[in-house]
Amino acid sequence: KLIESGSHSWSSPSNIALVKYWGKKESQIPANPSVSFTLDACKTTTTVKYKRLEQPNSEFSFDVYFEGDKNEAFKPKIKTFFKRIEGYLPFLKEYHFIIETSNTFPHSSGIASSASGMSALALCLLTIERDLSIPLEVTEEYFNKKASFLARLGSGSACRSIEGDLIVWGKHTDIEGSSDLFGSKFPYKVHDNFKNYHDTILLVDKGEKQVSSTVGHDLMHNHPFAQERFKQAHNNLSRLINVFETGDLRAFIEIVESEALTLHAMMMTSLPYFILMKPNTLEIINKIWRFRQETGRNISFTLDAGANVHVLYPESEAKEVYEFINNQLVVYCQNGHYICDRIGFGAKQL
Ligand code: PMV
C-alpha cells in the first residue's frame, strides 16, 4: 500500500536474565540458551513517525530524539540495526523516520537501555510494516515472534522484552518451542511463588559501562572455560524447569546467584580481563547472604555486566525484605538511589 506518513508508539520493558546469555555466534545467535524475568517499571517509550521520501534513498534516512533532544550518539547503533533488518522490512529506505525515545529510568543509571530500546523500536517498525502491507490476518503469536526476531538483531537480550513474564531465548532440548532466533514464553507450569516476584535494583555505580556487551560477548571466543560455561547454562535451565514447577525457592536462589557470579567469573578470566563489581557490590552481596542466613528469607541477587545489584524476592516476603533493603543496603547505593521493579508482562502499543 502507498502510505505517505504515519506514526506508531510502543513502550517496552527491560528484562533481567536468570540464566545469562554471554557469548554469541554470527547473526546474533546466542552461544547458550537463557531465561529472564520481564520487568515492569524500567521501560523505554518510543514513537516512530514516518514520511515517504520523494525517491527511495541509497542510505537510511532518520533522526533520533532522546528525551526531547536531538541525539547523534545513538545513530550508529540504529544504523547497524536497520542494515541487519532491511531484508525483513524492505520499506526502510523509502521513508524518512523520526525516532523519539525516552526511558523511565535515568539515562546515567548504569541500567542498560538496549533491551527496552531496541524492542520498542522493533515493535514500532513492525507496526509500520503492518500499515504498509496488504491487510493480512497476522496472529498475535506471529507478530510477537517477528518482533522478537527483529529485536534480537538490535540487541540480543532485547528479544526477551516483547512478552512476559518469563521468557526463554536459545534452543534448549528440554524446552519445547525454544529457538535461537527469537524469545518465547516459558511453556511449562510456573508455581505461584514466582508470581509478582520483586526486583529492586540497587544503583551502585551509575557510570558508563566499562565493557560494552559487543566486546563482552567477543571475550567468550577462545575463552578457556567457554565450553564448560555453555554446558552449565543448559544444565541450569534444565534444573529451572523443575524449580519453576515446584516453587523451590532455595534451588532458585542457588541457580540464579551462581549464574550471576559465573557471568562475572567469565569476565575475570577472559583476555583482556575485567572486574565489573565494585566494593559496594560485594558489601551488598555479603549483607544479603547474612540476612538470608539469619532470617531464612528467600532473598537473592543477580547481576548484569556491571556493578549494580538486582535484589530478587517473592511477593509474600516483600515487606520484610524491603525494610531490610531500606535499613541496610541503600547506604551502598550512589546517592542512595535504587529502583523498585517487579516481574512484568511485556510491551504495549500506545
Ligand atoms: O543483549 P546484550 O548483547 O546487551 O547482552 C546482554 C548480556 C547480559 O545482560 C549480561 C546477560 C543477559 O542475558 O541479559
Automatic annotation (TrEMBL):
In terms of superkingdom, the source organism counts as Bacteria
Which ranges carry the Mvd1 C-terminal domain? 201-329
Name listed for the protein in its UniProt record: Diphosphomevalonate decarboxylase
Keywords assigned by UniProt?
Answer: ATP-binding, Lipid biosynthesis, Lipid metabolism, Lyase, Nucleotide-binding
Q: Name one Pfam family in it.
A: MVD-like_N
According to the entry, every stretch annotated as the Diphosphomevalonate decarboxylase-like N-terminal domain falls at 13-174
